Task: inverse folding
């Protein structure tokens, strides 16, 4: 697509329920990132994918969080047994590494509009 | 480990004046890239400017310039002739391993909220 697409844009869920957040990156982008942003705060790195593999999962807050990416395209972030502290905006981003190419044509990270998660 | 520090939680600037937003970083990788993003109240993340660690000159994009001091590991953003529409949150970010395809992890600083006064 033309940009990074995330769904749902808003999600209200009850504590203890599982949620799935979806990210459709820009076509051809090899890298995909998930960040979490609490209200008024900075971006907390969660995980990134290089193709279908996730070289770095160190940012996932707990084992309730997991993510996968299939076909080098769409990614799903799953939060099991949601807690109120999980409430935040979950931002997905993608980029394409082109050696020798400077942003914005290469290397720039493009963000989606985010999925606003509220756990009540 | 990567680390990005933005020490100014909030900044005020008078319209039409220049402002500098600070960013320092820490990495042991000689190859890295530095980014600045703007996040207005709408929440979208807007790419502003990029500096590669091997770039000889400071990056400039319109009213934005990056004051890159490699030895001090700082990458301050300078906005000239501030406009009311510049009021937003500004994030500095770093990605290691820019020269090869192995580096994609990108981390962000805590951000600086800029208020432009009329």
Result:
């Amino acid at each position: 697509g033309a940009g990074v697409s995330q769904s749902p844009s808003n999600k209200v869920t009850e504590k203890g329920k599982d949620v799935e957040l979806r990210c459709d990156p820009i076509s051809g982008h090899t890298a995909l990132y998930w960040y979490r942003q609490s209200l008024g705060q900075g971006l907390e790195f969660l995980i990134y994918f290089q193709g279908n593999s996730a070289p770095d999962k160190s940012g996932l807050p707990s084992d309730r969080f997991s993510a996968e990416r299939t076909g080098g395209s769409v990614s799903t972030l799953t939060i099991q047994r949601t807690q109120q502290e999980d409430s935040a905006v979950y931002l997905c981003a993608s980029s394409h590494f082109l050696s020798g190419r400077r942003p914005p044509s290469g290397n720039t990270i493009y963000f989606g509009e985010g999925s606003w998660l509220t756990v009540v | 480990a990567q680390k990005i520090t933005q020490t100014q939680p909030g900044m005020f600037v008078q319209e039409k004046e220049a402002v500098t937003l600070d960013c320092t970083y820490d990495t042991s990788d000689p190859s890295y890239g530095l980014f600045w993003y703007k996040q207005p109240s709408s929440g979208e993340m807007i790419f502003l400017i990029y500096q590669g660690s091997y770039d000889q000159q400071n990056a400039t994009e319109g009213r934005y310039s990056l004051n890159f001091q490699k030895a001090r590991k700082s990458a301050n953003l300078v906005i000239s002739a501030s406009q009311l529409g510049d009021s937003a949150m500004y994030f500095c970010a770093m990605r290691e391993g820019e020269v090869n395809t192995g580096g994609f992890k990108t981390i962000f600083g805590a951000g600086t909220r800029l208020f432009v006064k009329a």
